[in-house]
Predict the structure of Coenzyme A biosynthesis bifunctional protein CoaBC.
Amino acid sequence: SRDNYLKGKRILVTAGGTQEAIDPVRFITNRSSGKQGYAIAQAALDAGADVILVTTPTGLEAPYGCEKVLVKSAEEMQNNLLDRLPDCDALIMCAAVADFRPKQISQQKIKKSSGYHKIDLEPTEDILGEIAGIRSSMPNLKAVFGFAAESQDLIKNASEKLNKKKLDMMIANDISSSDSGFEVDQNRAFFLFPDGNKKEMPLMEKSDLAEKIIAELNRFF
Ligand code: C5P
């Protein structure tokens, strides 16, 4: 039935902001609560899918029935995805992956008494970029959706990322106003497609947006 339209499909959802270690007690991360990703995992379960939720520590309770995989860094998330994706039917990449990480992780806690301390950063792996390059080796993987959180030139920047990362759909998130986006329960977005089409999603609950995102998977199967 329509209610179970993802029955038998394995959907991998990523959520949360990656944590890039500085030393044993500190890390660099970004402003992501994980709420939208967890809501997507729930919506996929509701549509009958088998769901793997690859998430950083968020403090949110994982939806009942999903397989939760806890990761911290971008590198760890990438390794997990590369292992699991060949057996998946779709990827929804909602995680806020850090763009930079400390070049060296200090094995000991950096002491305040050491005074001024400079941390050199290096870029992390572009996980979706890597996946785009090896998609032909994963015939099961029918749909890859990504997110773009932009504070300006939303459509232009998100479209560029859609093309560069060879996505089937980009969810372009408007983070310019305080009622949507990070940490709150509501979101406003555009769905962008490779053929240039777009769909506007007005301000709505993250759970409702999650259902609309999951509904877009229908035509791939
Ligand atoms: O950070 P950015 O706006 O480029 O993220 C766009 C999309 O790419 C998101 O779906 C995010 O999860 C993904 N991403 C990634 N690897 C990165 C940075 C972002 O896969 N290093």
Q: What stands out?
A: Residues 87 and 132 are 16 Å apart (CA to CA). The helical segments are 35-46, 74-84, 127-134, 154-164, 206-215.
